[in-house]
Amino acid sequence: MTSAGAVKGVSQNGIARFLGIPFAAAPEGPLRFRPPMPAPGWDGVREAVAFGTAPPQLAPAPGAPPAWRPGDGLDCLTLNVWTPDPATTGLPVMVWVYGGLWKHGAASMPQYDAGVLAGSGVVVVSFNYRVGFEGFGHLPGVADNRGLRDQVAALEWVRDNITAFGGDPADVTVFGQSAGAASVALLTAAPAARGLFRRAIAQSIPSGIRTAAEAEAVTTAVAAAAGVPATPEAFAALPPEAILAVQDAPLRPGDGFTAFGPVVDGDLVTGPPWTALRAGAGRDVDLICGFTHEEFRGQGPLPPPGVDLGLVAEAVGLDKGAAAAYRQAHPGTSDADLFTVMLSDALVRMPTTWVAEAHARAGGRTWLYDFTWSGPALGAGHGIDVPFVFGNATTRPAARLLGSPPPPDFAGLSRRLRSAWTSFAVTGDPGWPRYTPERPTTRTWDTPPTDGPYPLEDSRRIWQRYTPPERRHAAP
Predict the structure, then answer these.
(1) Is 178 a catalytic residue?
(2) Per annotation, catalytic residue among 204, 382, 414, 459
(3) Looking at 178, 204, 414, 459, which residue is catalytic?
(4) How sure is the predictor about 253, in pLDDT bands with cuts at 50, 70 and 90?
(5) On the CB side of 196, how many CA atoms lie within 13 Å of its CA?
(6) Quick check: 16 and 9 in contact, CB under 8 A?
(7) Is 295 considered catalytic here?
(8) Residue 170, CA distances (Å) to 94, 110, 155, 176, 383 in order
(9) DSSP-assigned states of every residue in 314-377
(10) Are the C-beta atoms of residues 222 and 247 closer than 8 Å to each other?
(11) Which of 112-141 are b and which e, b meaning 16 or more Cβ less than 10 Å from the residue's Cβ?
């Protein structure tokens, strides 16, 4: 029984699944481009046996199956629960936040099936949140960061309802990857999410927030491409597919992969997450964060022959002289491989490090990891850790990263990683030493896992030395 009505799920392999439960009203009609509102109740028993509609989005890559199609509508704010025993009480709860460049993603994607993870003795919740312009587009007079507000609403639903599924609302761990990891870091620091979770796991925290002026410029470009005024009324009159068709209009070479991201609104988002964490926000939340060792592999194109690393350094926010420092730190490495190192640092590895440092320096219990296990196609690229966390090796995204069939050491490392994540959810200890300013111990996830010093000291020093003065507010 939920606060909105009764639900009936199904059991599969000893795990009860409840799918497509509304946690907020459909963001359509007068509620479109508005913060989430409570879901209406229903009479009788609702069949919770199928995933809800994904948020509006394009297919993530050419040839990939789209999660949403025109005609699916906007009734997307639903969640899913996997529980080993809905009749019990007090099970730890893990709430998943998907990534996807702030413009892709859905809880129904097969790589996020949580049946295996829930088999470790935890209740797992996944949910949809609005992405792209629907979730992060800036409109005058309308609250920014609707996608993040959807996440808060889902966590409030967990607080109010998870007891009915065997979970403990006082023992919630929120975990996510990529944009989901940035969400986790931002929510850890946000007053609106205070008390909604006790622990957090952020897998590959990307850089990238938008000032109000930057977000307004994105809206202006999208509106011009769509041929409408940049007003809430004009955008509300457009079907989602009309906005999706022009959502990349603001992107120019060097702008990255997406025009969207969290907007500095002075409320949910006050700046980069490490800024608020360094000031002590969220110090009562235990935090694991980490990165894959070759984050840029699989994210972007290979560099052109003869790439100018000085220009690359400037493009990612460093002084041009950083290129020589990278060469000195990695003797014998080709410029093409140094390109991957620099982009991996800029996009994910340094932002994740700054979050860990900020949280630890403020007194928060912090753990850091480097996922170095290398797949046959994309090495230790972005997202390689996701199939290990969920124990799902045969989905299309997993096959892209792991090969098919997966390497024989997948199963053992997946069990160890799931054990660490669920142990953290249960006890607050993932099984390796904490990261502290005095002793920045880092877990290396490989076969076998090892613990040792922070592995990117050269990169950290380069970023401290070669960040231009006008950008030093963006990094510790």
Answers:
(1) yes
(2) 382
(3) 178
(4) low
(5) 22
(6) yes
(7) yes
(8) 12, 29, 12, 19, 29
(9) HHTTS-TTHHHHHHHHSTT--HHHHHHHHHHIIIIIHHHHHHHHHHHHTT--EEEEEE---BTT
(10) yes
(11) bbbbbbbbbebbbbbbbbbbbbbbbbbbee
Q: Render pLDDT for 437-476 as a digit per residue (tens, 0 to 9).
A: 999 999 999 999 999 999 999 999 999 999 876 454 455 5
Report yes or no: 262 and 129 within 8 Å, Cβ to Cβ: no
Tokens of 192: 């609106």
pLDDT tens digit sequence for 350-373: 999 999 999 999 999 999 999 999
Residue 7: DSSP 8-state: E
Please give the pLDDT value at position 213.
94
Q: Spot the catalytic one: 134, 294, 295, 357.
A: 295
473 is an active site residue: no
Report residue 21 as tokens: 């439960």
Question: 346 falls in which pLDDT band (50, 70, 90)?
Answer: very high
Residue 218 clears pLDDT 60, i.e. is over it: yes
Helices (H), 190-302: 212-226, 232-236, 240-244, 273-278
Q: How far is CA 234 from CA 55, 146, 218, 319, 344, in A?
A: 20, 18, 15, 42, 39
Q: What pLDDT does 348 receive? A: 96
Predicted confidence (pLDDT) per residue in 14-53, tens digit: 999 999 999 999 999 999 999 999 999 999 999 999 999 9
Task: Give, as one character, the DSSP assignment of residue 167.
Answer: E
3-state class of 156 per DSSP? helix
Distance of CA 190 to the CA centre of its chain: 16
pTM beyond 0.85, yes or no: yes
Residue 10: count other Cβ atoms within 10 Å of its Cβ: 13
Per-residue confidence (pLDDT) for residue 415, from 0 to 100: 98
